[in-house]
Amino acid sequence: MTVPGSVPDSPSLDTTLASLPLDGERTLPEVDSRYIWLQVLGQFGVFLAFITPVAISLSVRVQELAPGREEYLGYITGSGALAVMLAAPLLGTLSDRTRTRIGKRRPFMIGGVIVGIVALILMALAPSVFLLGTGWILAQLGWGTTLANLQISTADRLPESQRGKVAGLTGFATQVAPVVGVILSGGLVGNSLLLFLVPGAIGVVLVAAFVMFVHENDTRGAVFPENLTVRNTFARYTYNPLQYPDYSLNWLARFLFYLGIAFNTTFTAFFYADRLDMTLGQVAGVMGTLGVGSIVAVTAGALSGGFMSDKFGQRKIFILVGASLFAVGVLTQAYSDGLPPLVVGSLIAALGIGMFSAVDQALLLDVLPERELEAGRFMGITGFATSIPQAVGPFVAPLLLAIGSSGDAKNYPLLFTVAAGVTLLGGFAVMQIRSVR
Question: Which CATH number fits domain 32-235: 1.20.1250.20, 2.60.40.10, 1.10.260.40, 3.30.1330.30?
Answer without folding.
Answer: 1.20.1250.20
